Structure formats: structure tokens, C-alpha cells
């Protein structure tokens, strides 16, 4: 592989415009799918903590979504909405749901009961406790699920190539088919660097959120 690095660099430089386009598509697939998963999974997680029956259904759907391979989901939605960016986005969105959903439920349920009781003693309603106590304290755990989904989807987004969804998979998979290792490396290494960068940035944010959550808990119990 190391012997192919100079050739991969030359390939990337010679096709820089296409690379930037594919990288932009890749980032858009990951970013939009994770944002949509947050919009759906966090409210569903909140609902699950308030209704045990709903919790069973919601976790069941989330587990099924995670179990089905992304490529299979893409194949299922392909007859309905065709090929391209949108069906790829649906597949990635579905795959991103479970980590955010489970972490939302875990984060809310793990809030210290003493902190909740202290908030009730201050006269706060259940909705106020959710908004002002539980969610702020659960944010680091929820964010850990978002971090997991985002990093996983960086790799999963390569599969968008199979239905014309774009992304760096265009270079990697077509390069494999052509036995063109410089092209494969030129598509694979940026994806790996993107995943590492996202994980590092998210880890720093997660650590900061953990500190803020501690301040919130101390303010209530202190």
C-alpha cells in the first residue's frame, strides 16, 4: 500500500475538482442523515422514557433498523424512490437511528433520582424537569450516540455508490473493480481521515458537555 501512496496523491491532484465534489457529497450524506436521525430519535427516546409500552415498540423498530444492512435498506427503498442521493440518505438515516435512540433513553433514565426529587421539591413540573434537568444532564450521553452514528455513517456512506448516491465510494468501489489501487487509496484515506477528525472533534465537545452537565447537577442539588 505504501508504494501506491505517491501514485494515489498524483491521482488526487489530477482529479481535485471531482474529489472535492465527491467529498462534499459524502459529508452531505453523513451530515443530513445524522441530523434527521437526531430529529426523530431524540423525541422518540423521550417518549420511550415516559411510556413503557411505547418504549418496547420504539426500541423494537430501532433494533430492526440497525439489524438490516444499509445496502438492503437501499435496495428496499430503490423501487419506491429510485436511485441517487435520496435513497442513499434514507438508508444512512435508518442506520443512524439506534445509537442516538438508545443513548437518549439511557441518558434520561440514568439521571440521578435524587436530583429529580430535589427539582420536584423546588416546585418544578415534570415538563420543566425534563427541559431544565434531565435533558441537560443527558446531553453528554445523547451526544455520544450522535458521535457513534456520525463516525459509523462515514464508512457506511461508501455504499451510496451502488445506487448513484455519490460520495467517496465512487472512487473506492470503481477502483476496486478496475484494480486501480491508487484510485482506491485516494478515495479511502480521506474517508478514514474524515472519520478520525469527526471522532476527535465530537470527543472534545462531548467532554465539554459533560462538564456543563456536572455544573447543572450541582446547581440543583447544591
UniProtKB/TrEMBL annotation:
Pfam family, one: BPD_transp_1
Keyword Transmembrane assigned: yes
One GO term (biological process): transmembrane transport
Domain ABC transmembrane type-1: 23-202
UniProt-annotated location(s): Cell membrane; Membrane
Topological relation to the membrane, as annotated: Multi-pass membrane protein
Ranges that cross the membrane: 27-49, 70-98, 158-179, 185-205
UniProt keyword annotations, A-Z: Membrane, Transmembrane, Transmembrane helix, Transport
GO cellular component: plasma membrane
UniProt xrefs under PANTHER family: GLYCINE BETAINE/L-PROLINE TRANSPORT SYSTEM PERMEASE PROTEIN PROW, OSMOPROTECTANT IMPORT PERMEASE PROTEIN OSMW
Family: Belongs to the binding-protein-dependent transport system permease family.
Protein name (database record): Osmoprotectant transport system permease protein
Originating organism: Halorubrum ezzemoulense (Halorubrum chaoviator)
Amino acid at each position: 500500500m505504501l508504494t501506491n501512496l505517491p501514485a494515489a496523491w498524483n491521482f488526487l491532484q489530477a482529479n481535485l475538482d471531482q474529489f472535492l465534489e465527491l467529498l462534499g457529497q459524502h459529508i452531505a450524506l453523513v451530515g443530513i442523515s445524522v441530523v434527521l436521525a437526531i430529529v426523530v430519535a431524540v423525541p422518540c427516546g423521550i417518549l420511550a422514557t415516559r411510556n413503557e409500552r411505547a418504549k418496547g415498540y420504539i426500541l423494537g423498530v430501532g433494533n430492526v433498523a440497525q439489524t438490516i444492512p444499509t445496502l438492503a435498506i437501499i435496495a428496499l427503498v430503490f423501487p419506491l424512490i429510485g436511485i441517487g442521493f435520496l435513497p442513499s440518505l434514507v438508508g444512512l438515516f435508518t442506520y443512524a437511528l439506534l445509537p442516538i435512540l438508545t443513548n437518549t433513553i439511557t441518558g434520561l433514565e440514568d439521571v440521578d433520582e435524587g436530583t429529580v426529587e430535589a427539582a420536584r421539591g423546588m416546585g418544578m413540573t415534570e415538563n420543566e424537569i425534563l427541559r431544565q434537568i434531565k435533558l441537560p444532564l443527558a446531553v453528554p450521553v445523547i451526544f455520544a450516540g450522535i458521535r457513534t452514528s456520525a463516525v459509523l455513517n462515514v464508512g457506511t456512506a461508501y455504499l451510496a455508490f451502488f445506487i448513484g448516491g455519490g460520495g467517496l465510494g465512487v472512487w473506492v468501489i470503481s477502483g476496486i473493480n478496475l484494480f486501480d489501487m491508487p484510485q482506491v487509496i485516494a478515495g479511502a484515506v480521506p474517508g478514514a481521515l474524515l472519520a478520525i477528525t469527526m471522532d476527535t472533534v465530537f470527543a472534545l465537545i462531548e467532554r465539554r458537555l459533560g462538564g456543563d452537565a456536572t455544573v447543572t447537577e450541582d446547581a440543583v442539588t447544591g
